[in-house]
Amino acid sequence: MASSTGVALVTGASAGIGAVYADRLAKRGYDLVLVARDRARMATLAEGLRSKTGVAIEVIPADLTLEGDVAKIEQRLAAGDVTLLVNNAGMSLKGGILENGAPELSRIIALNVAAPTRLTAAAAKALIAQGGGAIVNISSVLALAPEMFEGVYSGTKAYLLNLSQAMAAQLKDKGVHVQVVLPGATRTELWEKAGRDINSFPDGFLMEVSDMVDAALVGFDQRETVTIPPLADEAQFITMQQARLAMAPNLSKSEVAARYRR
Ligand SMILES: NC(=O)c1ccc[n+]([C@@H]2O[C@H](COP(=O)([O-])OP(=O)(O)OC[C@H]3O[C@@H](n4cnc5c(N)ncnc54)[C@H](OP(=O)(O)O)[C@@H]3O)[C@@H](O)[C@H]2O)c1
Description:
This protein has 262 residues and is of the alpha/beta class. Helix 2 (39-53) links the parallel strand 2 (31-36) and strand 3 (57-61). The protein contains 8 helices and 7 strands. Helix 1 packs parallel to helix 2 and helix 1 packs across helix 7 (209-221). Strands 3-2-1-4-5-6-7 form a 7-stranded parallel β-sheet, sandwiched between helices. The radius of gyration is 19 Å and the shape is globular. NADP nicotinamide-adenine-dinucleotide phosphate is lined by residues 12-18, 36-38, 41, 62-65, 88-91, 111, 138, 140, 183, 185-186, 188-190, 193.
């Protein structure tokens, strides 16, 4: 399987943002590797995309909270033909840290943190060896706004932003582009699965999933590292970044800051 554009592996490709990425990447000429748990849904999507675009599509059912399934996708990335990884699979929680027990907390960290970390690492190594490619990580605006949510989901997304920014800096001279996408609230099944009614959201709060992915791809084409589709005033993010970078040289010192001295 190899087209002139390359091969894109999309996790969470059976629904929502991942399914739209699959559609858009197929239309760009990428052959696809679709990864999620629901084999039947991916098979239906693949059939439609094959007949519309003629690209080759492989479907790999995998539960990315399971060690063996993550290892299977790592091996697929190591095969050496995937040129673009979209780490999109993710979940939210019904309720927050106080309402969930250990299994659910472990599960969200496995899917939203451990799996994309493992796949980013596997893809980065393969892409460097192949001489280039790209990794797209789907984070969330909640990475920048923990006060707006319950902390666990937003924390997983902050982790992914941090990882992606660090990886982008490390890989930029190795021909590997890393983009992290921060969607705001987007119309997908994620909300219903988390017990939230999107009809209760205020007017103008929710973005259509096709608009979100198309905007993210504009950012991808511009080789952005951080893409925030709903943020109209880019200067707000740039100001925050500059403030953070200006603080960076002051964050490790042998001397305790004066206000903490007795
Ligand atoms: N919707 C939003 O408002 C929003 C905003 C910011 C960020 N995001 C992020 O965008 C990404 C996609 O979410 P979405 O909104 O498109 O949600 P979605 O419609 O619920 O889709 C989630 C995808 O992840 C897959 N998935 C879930 N659990 C999985 C598991 N254990 N193993 C493998 N795949 C699994 C699902 O497929 P299966 O069920 O077939 O496994 C599905 O394809 C997530 O990372 C989410 O955090 C969403």
